[in-house]
Specification:
The complex is a heterotrimer of chains A (152), B (295) and C (776). By secondary structure, chain A is α+β, with helices and mostly antiparallel strands. Chain A has helices spanning 24-31, 87-94, 104-116, 123-129, 141-151; strands at residues 3-9, 12-18, 50-53, 56-59, 72-74. In chain B, 30% of the residues lie in helices and 26% in strands. In chain B, strands 4-5-10-6-7 form a five-stranded antiparallel beta sheet. In chain B, strands 11-12-13-14 form a four-stranded antiparallel beta sheet, with helices on both faces. The chains are: A alpha+beta (152), B alpha+beta (295), C alpha+beta (776). The complex binds flavin-adenine dinucleotide and FE2/S2 (inorganic) cluster (2 copies).
Chain lengths: 152, 295, 776
């Protein structure tokens, strides 16, 4: 049985009817037309679906939408402000950290959550912050470099 | 893929209400904590249809608090909350908890809960093994009230635990450990996003003379349906004067009690060999927290 | 090398902005009004005949709009490989959209389309299938034995393809050898792990014309294979080119089950139908073929090869598909042609089993060959106390030699020697200690391997599409639209191709836009595969841009009153060669060329100064001219924990001769990503199946392990030894594959150097290390 709930995504309120088992990822992609978070596995581990809930990175593929009322959700669509890219987005472009791009939005969101609490991270910390995100194209080096760039 | 359809979503606001709902729905309800294990089951098509999904989110269980010398952890405390809790930070005797929580990726730290990780009764998870090393227990709450179950009695087999009808896991208790205790945890994994091929949690207590006054060595991972304790190894340590040689010998003894499995990730022989190494390294790591260097 | 302004620059990928802000252009995002969701019912058995399928209950479920069973689909046998023509005699046509015999666990037996995904899933549960379970065989060795279950009538002993190549007389060659080495190497089944799942949407109109969106590496291959399997003329199938796809690496280089099934479901329901594979389904859709390579190698005391013999047994799984091509590529490029040797022979066969179908994967037979060849060379060097670098140089081909594969060509640029020497120097190879000499429980070692020869243009392989074509159209704002069928799967194809256009036209890279394309609107292009895009498509794009430029200058010549030959384009402006006196922006020329002949102005009718009107554009369609080979060497340092067997790569250095580097940023990305895949292959990846039931045990990322940022070494250096390949666009050759071919043997050799034991079977797990050390 679907139930209507209110979600706050990127500062906007959405009223959606969701099934008890619906995940945030499905609700965003199917109902809200927010396709930045990607499904890469649906069982946790690839990280393509990463978004922030109350400023913390989670896998949206395993976050039940029903549990999110009253929480602040941020997705890649909410990063750029007034057409200005977030420093992370800019750094990913500059450093050549984007290849096929399928992991990119999840990577940036994982990095975003990390940088909210970390001013001058070490390379090891950066790598730890994206340990839950797989990339098959880049070998991660330029991604790590981009996150370092954005931190500065 | 979507999870198995539940007809209803319920979000009880107290422990009593949780028990009421569990009693009402019986087998036809499933509890939801962080969802990271539950959704994995559903997405793999391993869950049958259910009447209700009962979320513990609003039941007021997300605390980590010291009580006397012991630690009480609400079932809904996330890994991150436990890791960041001030009573856990920098305490040698709780080192195993911090170690165990170093392994999961941030997304899991932020979502997975202490209750969910324990109640999954999955021997490949890390935190429960660390908690066993610390002598941890769960508090089960049900129609008959609350009862404490030692973790070693809590796990019965793969995915089977000692909770009865209408009961749920309300909190986890880590008892006060004697002075000069330290613990550590180590895990063998293939990449940073893996469940344990093998893991070990250890706790040692020493006296002023440097004699070992208590030891727990517990294994999880591919060792069968429930975490196991390496009793022979523990006995070997207890009352002994610690030395590199002793640690090595005691670690060799784990093979008496740990009988790993073979699966597609590793053979029993490999796990048995690695178990000795992990045990020794974990003991060294724990003792280093007391300022004793053996490695 | 003439001066270049765009080629060779660290330009940003043209899609990067879109990808960091949400990546809307992936096929996984395609949704159409009224779209249905399809699901495949897959067999739980590895080998079975379907006795009966009852779909009555599923069809009655509200929301279900179409159901398919084998009896309701065309039974046309096809092969699924995009780059080979449908009727190519080298291919084995053993695929059916749905068959009444299943040959691997997970082979589809029926399909459903419904208004909601959940309804389709529920409908699958309502389909009742009665199977007659047949004996199955999962090991290629067993499959070839007499009495093994027969998987196909056309393949006695389950041998799908049998091939042999060689020259000289190996037996004679072995007689001349001072030493003969014999070793066997085994590689495992690994998955490409493209991150975007295979997904497609197919729509049909009232006339039965199909439009297809798919996460595919080749729109024309998909069109051709799909039309064939459905028994339709090719004109009934239109495939839309995705703006980009979320990885492929060879894993999206064949017709899947989902496209024909979606097409039929759409034709049946009259609605668009979408199928997205789950990660589990992706894992059982495509994989690198396991190959067992037996090597017999004869050498002189000084390390000169006298004879080389190899026998490869490739497991192709339930269907031959790519196996029929991977096998000869492996034999030729992975073994036969790698080094100079007078007497060489290779024999190989592709064997059917009841495992999943093997597929394409970056390197295409190369990694299996290189692991054997490059490991064995180190073994020989160790035994004979020879220097592994000198050994390889002694036996390698040389620049200006005839191309070993196609003697009509020469290796006009070929700098393997420099790759080895400079790589060794930068990596401080000379500091390498003797094997196993370190102390302590954690031991370090360094190793290297090379891929001396690789194809880029593929010229000369029989039965493989190779040509490319493009349209370059100039716009009135001075930009250019590049229409081409090449799919960007993340290797920077869009960037490289727009750079080539920009360079040729004399505009900046961001003035080139990749246009919409589908199979109707652009010339044929062979797939994005085989390290061919920069070279082959790059040449086509250069020719198209060149002809647009020629036209531009013809038109502009009317404005300058000069011959087109006296004009040039610099920074988007046309001028007399070398003169800055008068410069006319391209935009102005294009606008005038496209303007009405007479324009009504305040002063009356004005005639534009340009007489011959029209859009300024250039087109091309051509096959590659040559067959240049890149050369690659990789050096790696590892640390081995001798108590747990864990291996940690600490740093890596690649030295590549890839001709001219068009996009350095992109090229480095290829190398770094290639190392990740090669390292996974070497150490951890293994798509394992239950040896009794044939069901996949590693169908998710908790069980199929690929390196994360934590396992990857912090240092991966790319050393590009640039040469100027005369046949390549601006001197370029190719890159994508060798950087994934060499890591496995390089790591195996480094492990040997660290601990003095050799593992000849991939992946080199901690367990195998401890076993080799005698600790288990
Ligand atoms: C990518 C990935 C990486 C991981 N890495 C690690 C790792 O490194 N180490 C590790 O240990 N684990 C790891 N895990 C597993 C993770 O720890 C578990 O999924 C998690 O602990 C489960 O907790 P949860 O709160 O999400 O539980 P849920 O999924 O919500 O629930 C789990 C089960 O417990 C039941 N349940 C939940 N709470 C209660 C309760 N209070 N009382 C009774 N029953 C209850 C539920 O009904 C369900 O059956 C990983 C998982 C993923 C997906
Ligand atoms: S889709 Fe969520 S982790 Fe892969
Ligand atoms: S850029 Fe392709 S998966 Fe990361």
């Amino acid at each position: 049985m679907k139930q209507v709930i209110n979600l706050e995504l990127n500062g906007e309120r959405y009223e959606v009817a969701v099934a008890p088992h619906a995940t945030l990822l499905e609700v965003m992609r199917r109902e809200l037309g927010l396709v930045g978070a990607k499904k890469g596995c649906d069982t946790g581990g690839c990280g393509c679906c990463t978004v922030l809930v109350d400023d913390r990175a989670v896998y949206s593929c395993m976050t039940y939408a029903m549990t999110l009322e009253g929480k602040k959700i941020t997705t890649i669509e909410g990063l750029a402000r007034d057409g200005k890219l977030d420093p992370l987005q800019q750094a990913f472009i500059e450093a050549g950290a984007v290849q096929c791009g399928y992991c990119t939005c999840g990577m940036i969101m994982a990095a975003k959550a990390f940088l909210l609490n970390s001013r001058s991270p070490t390379e090891a910390q950066i790598r730890q912050a994206i340990a839950g995100n797989l990339c098959r194209c880049t070998g991660y080096r330029k991604i790590v470099e981009a996150i370092g760039l954005a931190a500065r | 893929m979507a999870a198995a359809p539940f007809k209803q979503y319920r979000s009880p606001e107290s422990s009593q209400e949780v028990v009421e709902l569990l009693t009402r729905y019986g087998e036809a309800a499933v509890l939801l904590a962080g969802g990271t294990f539950l959704h994995g089951l559903a997405a793999r098509g391993l869950m049958s249809k259910m009447e209700a999904l009962i979320s513990l989110q609003k039941a007021g269980l997300d605390y980590v608090k010291p009580q006397g010398g012991s630690l009480t952890i609400g079932a809904m405390a996330t890994f991150r909350e436990l890791l960041d809790a001030s009573p856990v930070k920098g305490r040698p005797e709780l080192g195993a908890i911090a170690d165990a929580l170093e392994y999961p990726p941030p997304q899991i730290l932020n979502a997975a809960t202490v209750g969910g990780s324990t109640a999954s009764a999955y021997p490949l998870f890390d935190l429960p093994v660390a908690l066993i090393a610390l002598g941890g227990a769960v508090v089960a709450q049900g129609p008959g009230g609350r009862r404490e179950i030692k973790l070693e009695q809590f796990f019965l087999d793969y995915f089977r635990h000692a909770l009865g009808k209408g009961e749920f896991l309300a909190e986890v208790i880590v008892p006060k450990l004697p002075d000069r205790s330290a613990s550590a945890f180590l895990k063998l994994e293939t990449n940073a996003n893996d469940l344990a091929l093998l893991n070990v949690g250890v706790r040692v207590t020493i006296d002023e003379e440097g004699l070992c006054r208590g030891a727990v060595v517990a294994f999880g991972g591919g060792i069968g349906g429930v975490p196991v304790r390496a009793a022979t190894c523990e006995t070997y340590l207890e009352g002994s004067r610690l030395s590199a040689k002793l640690l090595d010998e005691s670690a060799q003894a784990v093979t008496h009690d740990v009988h790993p499995i073979s699966d597609h990730r590793a053979s029993a022989r490999y796990r048995a060999t690695a178990a000795k190494v992990l045990a020794r390294r974990a003991l060294i790591r724990a003792l280093a927290r007391l300022g004793l260097e053996f490695g | 090398m003439s001066e270049l302004s765009v080629v060779g620059q660290r330009v940003r990928s043209p899609d990067a902005y879109d990808k960091v802000t949400g990546g809307k252009g992936f096929p996984v995002n395609v949704r159409l009004p009224g779209m249905l969701h399809g699901k495949l019912l897959r067999s739980p058995y590895a080998h079975a005949r379907i006795v009966r399928i009852d779909t009555a209950k599923a069809e009655k479920l509200p929301g279900v709009k179409a159901v398919l069973t084998p009896s309701a689909v065309p039974q046309i046998k096809y092969h699924s490989v995009f780059f080979a023509p449908n009727l190519d005699p080298g291919m084995v046509r053993d695929m059916l959209i749905l068959s009444d015999t299943v040959r691997f666990a997970g082979e589809p037996v029926a399909a459903v389309a419904a208004t909601e995904l959940e309804i389709a899933e529920e409908a699958l549960e309502l389909i009742d299938v009665e199977y007659d379970v047949l004996p199955a065989v999962f090991d290629p060795g067993e499959a070839m034995r007499p009495g093994a279950p027969q998987i196909w009538e056309h393949a006695p002993n389950n041998v799908a393809v049998n091939l042999s190549f060689g020259f000289g007389d190996v037996e004679q060659g072995f007689k001349q050898a001072d030493y003969v080495f014999e070793n066997t190497y085994q590689t495992q089944r690994v998955h490409t792990c493209y991150m975007e799942p295979r997904v497609c949407v197919v729509d049909s109109d009232r006339q039965g014309d199909l439009t297809v969106w798919s996460s595919t590496q080749h729109i024309f291959g998909l069109q051709e294979k799909l039309a064939f399997a459905l028994g339709l003329p090719i004109s009934k199938v239109r495939v839309v080119k995705p703006r980009y796809i979320g990885g492929g690496f060879g894993g999206k280089l064949d017709l899947g089950y989902i496209e024909p099934v979606c097409a039929l479901l759409s034709l049946k329901s009259g609605r668009p139908v979408r199928i997205e594979q789950t990660r589990y389904e992706d894992f059982i859709t495509t994989a690198r073929h396991p190959v067992k390579v037996q090597l017999r190698t004869g050498v002189k005391k000084d390390g000169t090869f006298t004879a080389r013999y190899a026998k490869s047994i490739l497991e192709t799984g339930a269907h031959a598909t790519h196996g029929a091509v991977v096998l000869p590529v492996h034999g030729l490029m992975g073994f036969l042609l790698t080094y100079r040797c007078p007497d060489v022979k290779w024999e190989g066969c592709a064997v059917y089993t009841n495992n999943m179908i093997g597929g394409g994967f970056r390197g295409y037979g190369g990694p299996q060959g290189a692991f054997a060849v490059e490991s064995q060379i180190d073994e020989i060097c160790e035994e004979l106390k020879l220097d592994p670098i000198a050994f390889r140089l002694k036996n390698a081909h040389r620049e200006a030699d005839p191309h070993p594969f196609n003697p009509n060509f020469t290796l006009s640029t070929y700098r393997l020697d420099e790759c080895l020497k400079r790589g060794a120097q930068e990596f401080e190879w000379s500091k390498r200690q003797s094997a196993g000499s370190g102390s302590g429980t954690k031991k370090r070692g360094i190793g290297f391997a090379c891929q001396p020869l690789w194809v880029s243009g593929c010229v000369g392989f029989p039965g493989i599409y190779e040509h490319s074509g493009a349209i370059v159209k100039l716009n009135v704002d001075g930009t250019a639209d590049l229409s081409i069928a090449t799919v960007d799967m993340g290797c920077g194809q869009n960037a490289v191709l727009s750079q080539i256009v920009a360079e040729e036209l004399g505009v900046s890279a961001d003035a080139v836009r990749i246009a919409y394309a589908d199979t109707q609107t652009v010339p044929f292009d062979a797939p994005t595969h085989a390290s061919r895009v920069t070279y082959s498509a790059g040449n086509a794009v250069k020719v198209a841009a060149g002809s647009a430029r020629k036209r531009l200058l013809e038109v502009a010549s009317q404005l300058f009153g000069a011959s087109p030959d006296d004009l040039e384009v610099v920074n988007g402006r046309v001028r007399l060669k070398g003169s800055r006196a008068k410069e006319i922006p391209i935009a102005e020329v294009v606008e005038l060329a496209g303007a009405p002949a007479l324009t009504l102005g305040l002063e009356g009718n004005q005639r534009t100064p340009i007489a011959d009107k029209g859009t300024i554009l250039g087109t091309s369609s051509l096959a590659p001219a040559s067959n240049p080979s890149p050369a690659t060497a990789e050096f790696v340092e590892v640390e081995v924990d001798t108590e747990t067997g864990e291996v940690r790569p600490l740093r890596a250095l690649f030295a590549h001769d890839i001709g001219r580097v068009i996009s350095p940023l992109g090229a480095e990305g290829q190398v770094e990503g290639g190392f990740q895949q090669g390292m996974g292959f070497a150490l951890m990846e293994n798509l394992v199946f239950d040896s009794e039931t044939g069901s996949c045990l590693a169908g998710d990322f908790l069980n199929y392990k690929i390196p994360t940022a934590i396992e990857m070494p912090g240092e991966i250096k790319s050393l590009f030894i640039e040469s100027n390949e005369p046949s390549g666009p601006f001197g370029a050759k190719a890159l994508a594959e060798p950087c994934l071919i060499v890591p496995a043997p390089a790591i195996a050799n480094a492990i040997y150097n660290a601990i003095g034991v050799r593992v000849r079977e991939l992946p080199i797990t901690p367990e195998k290390i401890l076993a080799a050390l005698g600790k288990l």
